Amino acid sequence: MTEFERHAYDVVVIGAGGAGLRAAIEARQRGLRTAVVCKSLFGKAHTVMAEGGIAAAMGNVNARDNWQVHFRDTMRGGKFLNHWRMAELHAKEAPERVWELETYGALFDRTPDGKISQRNFGGHEYPRLAHVGDRTGLELIRTLQQKIVSLQQEDFKETGDYEANLKVFAEFTVTDLLKSDGRIAGAFGYWRESGRFVVFEAPAVVLATGGIGKSFKVTSNSWEYTGDGHALALRAGASLINMEFVQFHPTGMVWPPSVKGILVTESVRGDGGVLRNSEGRRFMFDYIPEVFKDKYADNEAEADRWYTDPDNNRRPPELLPRDEVARAINAEVKAGRGSPHGGVFLDVSSRLSAEEIKRRLPSMYHQFKELADVDITAEPMEVGPTCHYVMGGVEVDPDSAQSRVPGLFAAGEVAGGMHGSNRLGGNSLSDLLVFGRRAGLGAADYVAALGSRPSLSEEDVQAAARLAVLPFEGGDGETQENPYALHGELQQVMNDLVGIIRKGEEMKLALTKLDELKRRAKNVVVEGHRQYNPGWHLALDLRNMLLVSECVAKAALQRTESRGGHTRDDYPQMEADWRRKLLPCTVEDDGITVTEQPQPAMRGDLLDLFEYDELQKYFTPEELESHRARLG
Ligand code: FAD
């Protein structure tokens, strides 16, 4: 029997982005011995890329803002498919989490009177995003890391060992979760550098692995986003919900090809940028959906006035939720009114001075100057939709972040439910902090209540090791496959057939192709050995991407309506009946099953926060009947 490096912890947090770090801080503060594991270098998680800000109803710029308004905006943005309890906790707790970051050392931009500054973003009624220029994610990660270091210094004082209670395992990939008697018992993985295997014994695991964007061809996501946490959860027996909802951010770079998909932050529109087609028309006025007509300006004069007088004018339609803007851009390009490289024009130079643009949007200025040779202070950018975020993820209990599997928790982008069918910009960074903390707390409570620690099965450990080295063994003798080629094919299938606009026939074709890819993936072969072998890393990631892509395609085929990040050409309407249904995905024998499950009904006092007229747009007549009765 092969011997492996072994460690024992109370909780293993997989992922060192915002969610993982916040969970680890909480777990350590509650007295758990905590390991944080990440594929990338410590500090390099995807969260670093976040630009625009953290949404929290602090009311610093407009005192009318409060948690109830944030809750309403979040539910509207998600087209009422959000788990209401998650949206409630998020809206209530986000301000506290932002202020807490300041106590950890974060330096946010300020208002003239010294408060944390807040900026406008799509779908948020008031300026709500706390920010640090357009590099907010960097500051968030820097601050959380600093807090971790300070906790390690405390531990050193007491024990003489910095890593006694909180240790980071960087450049380390988890490939399997280990269970015993139906509950979590640990995790198995390898050092990316040496390829050496490691076993963690731990009664609790927090998944904080982020998203799935690398399954799509054009994406803003970093290399880490291969859906590992989603797949680990599935294989451990947890369920995923809302997987049909994938957010295509409306503004990614479209040119040159080497940078296609890189994000252009929504702050450009929040700070006054306008979208125009090749005819120079501000086309978003043509795409305001019925449900938002009373909230968005239908003419340029009113939209322009809103920047200086937001209380007496409606918002510009460029600030509609992302799904609406992405679909509108897609339609303009399809209608032949796109920019030379297949996008539309986004112009901030006509609204702000060059100096102001460089001050408010420094990364965007440099990004375009260096990558596309475009000076955004003088000319428009070319932009188009890019796969950005997955609303779907591990089904969790809103309060404790625990999945269906005892001991398995999830927070951040890998968790599902909070954002419903579409996430509002800025609501991810706040989600990471609110539910990262709750996952750490949930894990601590779980471990404290355990009678005995689960013990690992040696057989399971050896099986995980055998599975991990399969790509070196040459498949079953059929044609050998290359992981890079298969990954390229997968990305093309997802982009072309399960992308921004979907059709039943195309998704059926996608599922046939995914089956074929899954079969071929069994014959993936990698050269060389386990040290520094990116081909091997990808071969292991591919297993996860294929499983998660199947969830997306199957759930998307089953949902015969259009809502948020799921647009069907063959079912263009939003249907009130579908709002009451979730489509959990589970795995059996390596195949995905999608079932139907009722969406938990919203608590009455929260329902009362909405006008009856608005609810009529989303709810079934029977649901409204009981609401009307309560209103008296
Ligand atoms: P991440 O920060 O992605 O961290 C995932 C971690 O998991 C990483 O450490 C990774 O190494 C690790 N990991 C993954 N798989 C494994 C494995 N198998 N084994 C070990 N470790 C693993 N949201 C906002 O709210 N506001 C914004 O302004 C904003 N701007 C954005 C800009 C860009 C360009 C992008 C791409 C996204 C933006 N978002 C924004 C979204 C937001 O950044 C992400 O949703 C969020 O950072 C996800 O954080 P997370 O903690 O869930 O995961």
From TrEMBL:
Residues 10-429 form the FAD-dependent oxidoreductase 2 FAD-binding domain. GO terms for molecular function: steroid dehydrogenase activity, acting on the CH-CH group of donors. This is Succinate dehydrogenase flavoprotein subunit. NCBIfam families: PRK07803.1. Keywords: FAD, Flavoprotein, Oxidoreductase. The lineage of its organism: Bacteria, Bacillati, Actinomycetota, Actinomycetes, Pseudonocardiales. It holds the Pfam family FAD_binding_2. The active site is at R322 (proton acceptor). It comes from the Bacteria. Signal peptide: none annotated. InterPro entries: FAD-dep_OxRdtase_2_FAD-bd, FAD/NAD-bd_sf, Fum_R/Succ_DH_flav-like_C_sf, Fum_Rdtase/Succ_DH_flav-like_C, SdhA/FrdA/AprA, Succ_DH/fumarate_Rdtase_cat_sf. Its cofactor is FAD. The gene is sdhA_2. It comes from Gandjariella thermophila.
